[in-house]
Amino acid sequence: MENSLSRRSLFRAAAAVPILSAAAAGTTSATAAAAPSATIPHGGRPDTTAQRFTVAVLPDTQYLLDDGGSDAEPVRATLRHLDRERAQDNIIFMTQLGDVTEHGTETEMRAASRAFDAAGRLPYSVLAGNHDVSGDDQRGDSPYLRTFGPKRFSRMETYGGSSPDGYNSYHVVRGGGREWLVLALDWRLSDAGLAWTQGVLDEHALPTILTTHDLVWAEDDGKAHLSDNGRRLWDRLIKGNDQIFLALGGHYWPSGRTTLTNDAGNAVHLHITNYQDRYYGGAGMVRYYGFDLARGVIDVETFSPWLLAKDEPTPLEAEHVELSGDVDRFTVEIDFDERFAAFAPPVLPAPLPPSAVMPRGTVAYWRFDEAGLAAAGSDGAPVAPGTVARDLTGNGNDLTSELLHTSDRNALTWSAEHHDAQPARASLRFDGGKSPDRGAVLRTGPDAPVNSAKFESGYTIETFLKLPEPFEGDHSWMGILSWEGRAGDAGKHSGWSDDEPTCSLNLSGERFLQFVVYPVLVDADPTSWSHAIPVGRWMHVALVNDGRHTVMYVDGSKIVRNAAEESRGISTLGKPFAIGGTQSAERYGQGFYGWIGDTRIVSRALRPNQFLTARGR
After folding, report:
1. Lower CB count within 10 Å: N or C terminus of the chain?
2. For residues 31 and 345, is the Cβ–Cβ distance under 8 A?
3. Which ranges of the chain have pLDDT less than 50?
4. Predicted structure pTM score
5. What is the CA radius of gyration of the chain?
C-alpha cells in the first residue's frame, strides 16, 4: 500500500552482491556467510541445532500480483531461492507480511497460490493485508481465506493452528536447538482475535516473533513510530507479553525500525519492511534475519534473488540487487539467554558426579562444590587459609589454600559462578593483583603423587576460567596453574629464565594464554599461545599432549600458535602443583585475577572437548 502519511523519497542503494547468511554453528564465526559448499545439497533440510540460522521475511508483493498488469516471476524466483538454499543459508522459516495481491480477487489469489507453490518444502506463513481483505478478522469468507486459510498450512510441520475465523495463525519453528513461536496476525485484529492470540501466548512460553501488516511507519531517516493499529497492538498485546521480542510489519514505506521497552523492562524491536515503492514493485525483495546465538546478534540483510540471478543486469537492476542502507542492512544485539530467561530459561546440562568425569588415567580431579571443597561456603564467602580441596580420584593430590604475601581474606572466595557445561556448579574467585603483589594459591602437599608424575606417554590438563568484566586494576603476568620446580634445577637452560617453572599455564598482560613446558628428555621450552581471551565469559582450556606434541584448545577449538618442537613429558622434579599462581625461584608474584572452576589432569591425550561433554571414557 502507498504510504498515506506522505510521499517518501527513494533510498538509492549502492550496487552490490549480497552476502548471505551461513549455516555454520561456530562459536565465534563472522557475520559474513561462507561461500556455497558442494557438500551441502540444494534444497536440503536446515540444521535446526546450529547456532546460526535464518528467518526470511517477504514483504508486500501486491504490485507483482495485480490483475491490472504485473509480473509474478520475481516472487516465484524469491521463493525458489529460499527453498533451494534452505540448507546452505540455514533457513528455518519464511514469514510474509500481507498485501499479497493488489485487489484480493479470485484471479489474483489463484496467481498468488501458483507463485507460492514455488516455496516447495519451505515452511512459511502468510497474513492478510488491506489490499487482500476489508474489515477485521471477523469478515467471514473471502478469496484470501480460501487461498491462504488453514488448509494451506495444515501439512506444514511448523503449523500450530489458526483462530476460529481462519485469519490468524501460529507456527512453532526450531532453530539454534530451541523452539520459537511465530504469530501471523490479520491486518485488523478483532477483540476475539486478540483473545485467541493471548491464548496462544499463554500456552506457548517461547520466544516470539509477531508479524502483522500494519504496525509502524517510518520517517525518511528510518526512525519508526507506532501506527494507530500498531499502538492498539502494543497496548493490548505486545507490551504485556514479555516473550514478544521482535515485531514485523509492512504496509507503509520507507522501511524503518525502532525499539520500545515493554512492561517487563525489556527491549522489543519493531521493524517495517516494504519495498513495493522500489524498482519493479520491489523486485521480490526478501529480508534475511540471520540469528547468531553464539554472538548474541541478529544480522539483517535485504536483497532480490530475482535480480541477483541476472547475468547482465541493467544499471537500474544492479542498483537494486541488494539494499545496504541503515534500515535495510543492520545488526540487532540480543543476549538471547538473558532476554528469554524469565519465561524460557536455557536448558543447561545437569551437574555431574565426580565419577562421571574421571576417565581412565585420571591422575587428579579438583572441583569446588560440596563434593570437592571442605566447608564450601555461600557465594562470596572467603576461603580460609588451610582449607582443603580434595583430589576426588582418591590418589592423594589434595590442595590446600594459602594467601600470598600480606593478602587479606577476600583474596580467595567461594563462588556459585560456573561454566554452563562444567560438571560442578561452583568455582573459586581469585582476587590477585600487584602494587602490592597479592593473591592466593592452592597447592599440593610435598608427597602428592602428581608432584613427580612425568607423563611421558601423554597428558591432558584441563580447567575452566573466567576473567572479570571490566578487567580492572594493576596486573602483571599472572599464573593460572603450574608445577613449582625450576627449569634450571631440571637442567634446562634454553628458556626465558632458569627460574621459570618447569610447566605453567599463564596469562599475559594482553590477556593471551601461555602454556610453557620443559620436556623430560630435551633442553627446550615448547610454548603455546592463545588469542586475546575475552573478559566476562567462561571458557574451557585444554592442553593435550600425545607423547610428542602439545596442543592448546579453547572451548574445543585448536589455537594457531602451538609449539612446533617435540615435547615428551614434563620435568616435574617432585615439586608441588599449584592453582592460582606460578612460583619462580621460591617466590610468587601476583596471584590470578578471576574465576577458576573444575580442573583435571589425565595421563593420556583426550578429545579436547571431552570435559565439556563429559560423556564416554
Report:
1. C
2. no
3. 1-40, 585-586, 614-617
4. 0.81
5. 30
